[in-house]
Design a protein that fits this description.
Elements lengths: L25 H12 L8 H14 L3 E4 L2 H11 L6 E5 L5 H8 L3 E5 L10 H11 L3 E5 L9 H10 L3 E5 L7 E2 L10 E5 L12 E4 L3 H10 L19 H32 L10 E2 L5 E3 L15 H5 L6 H9 L1 E3 L6
Parallel strand pairs: 2-3, 2-4, 4-5, 5-7
Antiparallel strand pairs: 1-8, 6-9, 7-8, 10-11
The protein binds pyridoxal-5'-phosphate.
Length: 336
């Protein structure tokens, strides 16, 4: 929880959009940037190392920083060599998720979500996995909580040799019984885009416990350096300026997420009983606060258009279609 008493949770709704940046951190960011300006080291430096170490301290897994989510996804999909293979992907996600697989040369097959959590349904996952025999699957932690079926989907993937990648774009600050996003499957990918709970403007982080994958990611983001250019990566590096901002943002993350959790618990939960209700032991980072009643003060829906509607309008995913019409987001922004 924020130690600053001026950060009162008792705000009149709705909260206006604000990038989660605490003014108390301004001096430190400027000092780090001033140091960089005088350092002659604007890439591949100590800020990147510190940012990755700071991320690992929260996430519990080795972390590799990227220019954005898409760069990290390209590197992971390259490691698993998905070209010509099938990738399973929830339809209820941002276009980035299936497009990353298509751009890697894979075939994409969609699966449905649950209504309660908006995330991948175990029952439909198994049905589609039996039918399409995927080499790799995505699960997406929609809205900042962890997919309720993650354990069963991860167990199924392990038993059937399906690589499982967690799209953690929304999930910074989340955990379930102490386990952080990205630790359930083979790897996780976070986004640090400008609207996310923790942002550096543009950026991404891949986490994995697999040392071979970690080495691949480090090489891929740098044109294959370190692999005698055998790994055919491109430039997906994160520069020192954004890495420095990332160090400061991740150190402030417990305050930012703690504030959102308190605001959710004390202000929003009593107002919105018909909402995504978290199972015992789960904490959300509250990228979104999702309710199932139409409300006047809303930031709209997480996604208006399910992905299967973009690629194959004749396909049917009943829960995804229900979710697209029946959820709304209540503004929840760390006040600055
Ligand atoms: C679920 C999901 N995956 C991936 C992305 C892509 O992230 P980035 O903008 O960092 O490439 C987003 C972006 O909002 C997202 O919502």
């Amino acid at each position: 929880m924020s130690g600053d008493p001026s950060r009162n949770i008792d705000h009149p709704a709705p909260l206006p959009f604000s990038v989660a940046f605490d003014p108390r951190d301004e001096e430190e960011v400027i000092a780090r940037w001033r140091g960089l300006l005088r350092s002659n080291k604007w890439s591949h430096g100590a800020e990147l190392d510190e940012f990755e170490a700071t991320w690992t301290a929260w996430n519990g897994l080795p972390a590799v920083a990227f220019d954005n989510w898409a760069g990290a996804a390209a590197a992971i999909l390259d490691f698993f060599d998905v070209a010509g293979k099938t990738v399973l992907c929830p339809s209820n996600t941002f276009l980035a998720t299936p497009r990353s697989a298509l751009r890697a040369g894979a075939r994409v097959e969609f699966y449905d979500c649950n209504r309660e959590d908006l995330c991948g349904s175990y029952a439909d996952f198994v049905e589609k996995a039996e039918r399409h025999k995927p080499a790799l699957a995505y699960i997406v932690h929609i809205g900042g909580h962890i997919a309720f079926d993650i354990h069963r989907i991860a167990d199924y993937c392990r038993a059937h040799q399906i690589a499982l990648i967690e799209d953690c774009a929304h999930a910074v600050g989340a955990e379930w019984d102490g386990v952080k996003p990205g630790a359930f499957g083979d790897a996780g990918i976070f986004s640090l885009y400008a609207t996310k709970t923790i942002s550096i403007g543009e950026g991404g982080v891949a986490v994995t416990a697999n040392p071979d994958l970690e080495r691949h990611l480090r090489s891929y983001r740098d044109y294959g350096r370190g692999s005698q250019y055998r790994i055919q990566g491109m430039n997906h590096r994160l520069d020192e300026f954004r890495a420095a901002l990332g160090v400061v943002q991740m150190r402030r993350m417990p305050d930012i997420v703690g504030w959102k959790q308190q605001y959710a618990r004390e202000v929003l939960d009593p107002r919105y009983p018909n909402r995504v209700t978290l199972p015992a032991g789960m904490a959300s980072g509250y990228y979104k606060y999702i309710v199932f009643d139409e409300i006047p003060q809303t930031t709209g829906r997480v996604y208006e258009l399910p992905c299967h509607n973009i690629f194959d309008p004749s396909a049917q995913f009943p829960n995804t279609e229900w979710v697209a019409k029946n959820h709304w987001c209540v503004p929840i922004y760390y006040p600055t």
